[in-house]
Every structure is written in C-alpha cells, then in structure tokens.
Amino acid sequence: MNLILASLIAIGLCGQTKVGPAKGHLIVAGGGDLGPEIVGRFIEMAGGPEAPIVIIPTADDRDEFPADYAANSFLAKAGARKVTMLHTRKKSDSDTETFAAVLKQAGGVWFTGGRHWRLVDSYLNTKVHQELRALLDRGGVIGGTSAGATIQGSFMVRGARSGNTIMVDRDYQEGLGFLRGVAIDQHLLARKRERDMVPVVQERPALLGLGIDEGTAIVVSGDRFRVVGTSKVAIYEHGKPFYFLSAGDEFDLATRRRGN
User: CATH classification of 3-8+17-258, choosing from 3.40.50.150, 3.40.50.2300, 3.40.250.10, 3.40.50.880?
Assistant: First the structure.
C-alpha cells in the first residue's frame, strides 16, 4: 500500500481535517540537498514525470530568470518533463486570471528557497493563492524548501525584510496557510536554530511549531505527516519541551500525537 492511499484511509476519504489540506498533499522541506525520497516523491504525487508541474522561484533575490530556468531546474533533472515557471514581483499580475491560469492544469507546484516575504508580497490573497488552494482541492501536491517551506504555514517566522534572524516581524506574519495554526522553521540543526521556535510558541499557546532540518521533509496528507530524508524534524508546543522525529516517524497534526 503506497503512502498516499494509506494516508487517505487514515483520515477517511470524506473526513474533515483541522490542520492539513482536506484533499491533496504537501511536501515541506528544510533546505539543503534533497534526495530522491523527497524530490521523487513530489514528482510521483504530482502525477508522474509527464504531469504538468509549476516551479515558483520568487523567494529568490533575482527579479528575472532565464527562459530555460524551468528546463534546467532540479525537478527537470529529476525526471519531470513538463515543468513551467511562474514568477512576478507584482501582486497586480498574480491577481489576474490570465497570470494564474497556468496553475489550473498543474498536478504539482514547488516553491524554491530564498526569503519568504517576497512570496507574501507577490502572492498572498491573490488569484494565484486561490488556484493553489484549488490545486489541493483536486488532489494535487504543493512542495517547497527553505522559504518555500515556511510559506506553507499560517503563521510565518523569519519573515522580516531586514533579516532572517528576527523570528516574528510586525509586518510579515501571515503565510499561505496550507497548514492551519502552524509555524514552520527550516535549516534547523544545520544553522543551530533548534531553540529559536521556543519563545514563539510560548507566546502563542494555540500555535504548533515545526522545525525541519536540511535534507529532510514532512509529507503531509490530511492531518498526518511522515518524516522523510536524512535528518530530524522538531515539534514545538506551548508549555512542553520540544522533541525530535526521524525518518519514518509519523505525527498527527490535529491531536499532536506521534506514532505510526
């Protein structure tokens, strides 16, 4: 039984979810080199090598990208044959049906790394944002690494324009919200960030914090996720010590309980 089918059975095909997407899947990666257990899984969940996939590099500091960016992307090198780039610095662009239309047929979307405030400036509460939710509703997958991981939560840490050492910025706190009531940190152990999320959840009792190290990801279906990759994922809750999950471990986002 594959992971997708097992996850659907676990949450119930018609069940209501509290945290994760009711349909579709998320892959949330902590940066660094990502192995085939992450990239290959994303392509599989998007529908396979022939499925239309959109890569969004807007978190990067470049304003423009070469015409062959998608064709030379890590997704194309991993075997995806129909990769298209979506990018703008103008929210007025991303709030049009024409610009967002490429997402209507996509089986998967991947957000690359950089600074996630740039993704907020371009896509939050726009037609693109609506189409991303529609992609999940039809069973697709949204993935992302580093900034592309943090943006998938509802509460955004390290969003300040002035630097990524500021955990909570006054102006940049709202993410795209594919995981509700969740804040996501990345590069966790590689950059010695394992304690940075503690004060964030202590000040916000309802918030669940996730810290994901490099080379590692969570694969989310409904309210459950499984850890894949080479390192650790940290779980943060108000009033409790944080702890780590490893590859193969599962976690229920709704009940906040670990276990397979």
Answer: 3.40.50.880
